Amino acid sequence: MSEDCLFCKIIAGEIPSKKVYEDDFCYAFDDIEPEAPVHTLVVPKKHFADLQTGPTEEDLGRLMATVPEVAKIKGVYESGYRAVVNVGPDSAQTVQHLHVHILGGIKMGRFTFEGSARE
Ligand code: 5GP
Ligand code: ZN
Hints:
The chain is of the alpha+beta class and 119 residues long. The protein contains two helices and five strands.
């Protein structure tokens, strides 16, 4: 656990969250400001600042293998969803604890970017 990490506090139950799934390695909970009808975050219980800072291949495998399981619980396994990992400043990562966003429940367009000509 990292002392000043919001998601570590959520995992520890010090900050309330709407739990979707939990096992020995992962915790999943609904995003507080959903950007789609389904917007759930899947996080490893171990603290890693981001995708490229600390996790082993096994850690990443376990995290990503959990994503479809959470998608099933949220009812988007068949309809489809987007799994997003923001990394670093240009991605607008705001919480420095590795997490996968599961976004779904709506037909999505392609990726859009600030100033992008492509909607
Ligand atoms: P990032 O921008 O780092 O990829 O995503 C962080 C996400 O965490 C955002 O979508 C934000 O809405 C969500 N978030 C921030 N604080 C909280 C919180 O206290 N509880 C929950 N459930 N989600 C949070
Ligand atoms: Zn953390």
